[in-house]
Design a protein that fits this description.
alpha+beta, Aminopeptidase, eight-stranded mixed beta sheet, seven-stranded mixed beta sheet, 7 helices, 30% strand, elongated
Length: 322
């Protein structure tokens, strides 16, 4: 990147990196963030491209957790756009949730999907872009974080799926009575379950595709519930849930549906939440009735079967005005 004048903020001075200096950041920096009272390097940036300018960022260990990466990105964006760039793009690894959130706080938007091998460490990346008119952030979120990190009614709590849930999640989703009710009635492979727990569920939440949560009664993982197919432009989303056989009959599913329904209306801003059930799944139908959903009709051939035929499903929905 061409030379630019130092940018001063209250936390650091962003200036071109000294080509003779060594910064242990894993790449050759083009700019560094220096503390205003000393010469210590707090963070670093590297750039690549012209009209579409790629940016990589790093924060020194002692300064992590202070939103320094977001501040550096906000500080450098006007410089990049003044130099003629039309888009500033970040491609953090999908497993680096901190780096993704840093870009989101700086106004970057997840508009490029998952790119294989495109991250700065050679793994899958989430492409995020910033345009001159996008502002300084944070970028709008379709699916906000849960208030306080979870939803609870005092009996159960819903929290995001995390890497530590892998073994419990694989066992649960590998149970025939659980995967029989899935959209495609097959158990996940170990790699698929690990991917969901390690990064996919979190990334899909950040990019507004789905919000997958663990149902926890204080004794750990008891099942999952999710808000899927969120369409903010029309204000709708689909709910899906499953429970371990050993805790069924305790009302956990109804409690979980009520918690997600209220969150979807109050925090996400949806107007309609719907669900589909198998024609013969009377237990799931009873859960939805207790949670205020109304039966709207039959969706012919709504889901596939392993035999190649399609199966009908019942469609249920609840409105924010109900």
């Amino acid at each position: 990147m061409q030379f630019f004048e130092p940018v001063e903020t209250t936390a650091f001075v962003l200036r071109p990196a000294d080509p003779d200096a060594t910064v242990d950041c894993g790449f050759i920096p083009d700019a560094v963030a220096i503390g205003p009272e000393d010469e210590s390097v707090r963070g670093a940036l590297a750039f690549e491209g012209a009209a579409v300018m790629g940016v990589r960022y790093w924060v020194a260990p002692g300064w992590r957790g202070k939103h320094l990466a977001s501040a550096m990105l906000r500080a450098v964006a006007p410089v990049v756009f003044d130099a003629g760039a039309q888009r500033l793009e970040a491609r953090p690894p999908v497993r680096d949730q901190t780096a993704i959130r840093s870009a989101l706080r700086a106004g970057f938007r997840p508009d490029g999907g998952i790119s294989r091998g495109a991250a700065w460490d050679g793994t899958e990346a989430l492409a995020l872009g910033l345009l001159p008119g996008d502002g300084t952030g944070p970028s709008p979120r379709v699916l906000p974080d849960l208030p306080g990190g979870n939803l609870t009614d005092g009996v159960i709590a819903l929290r995001p799926l995390v890497p530590g849930d892998f073994e419990a999640h694989l066992r649960h989703r590998s149970s025939p009575d659980v995967y029989a009710g899935a959209a495609l009635p097959l158990p996940p492979s170990a790699d698929e379950a690990r991917e969901v727990c390690e990064w996919r569920a979190a990334v899909d939440w950040l990019r507004g595709r789905s919000a997958l949560m663990v149902i926890d009664d204080g004794e750990g993982y008891q099942g999952t519930i999710g808000l899927y197919d969120v369409a903010r432009i029309v204000g709708t989303g689909m709910i899906g849930y499953d429970l371990r056989a050993s805790v069924r009959g305790r009302g956990y599913a109804t409690r979980a549906v009520n918690l997600v329904r209220r969150w979807a209306f109050r925090e996400v801003g949806l107007d309609r939440v719907w669900a589909g059930t198998d024609l013969h799944n009377t237990a799931s139908q009873a859960v939805l009735r207790r949670a205020g959903f109304r039966l709207e009709g039959v969706e012919r051939g709504g889901l596939p079967t392993l035999a190649g035929r399609r199966r009908d499903t019942l469609v249920w929905a609840v409105l924010s005005s109900d």
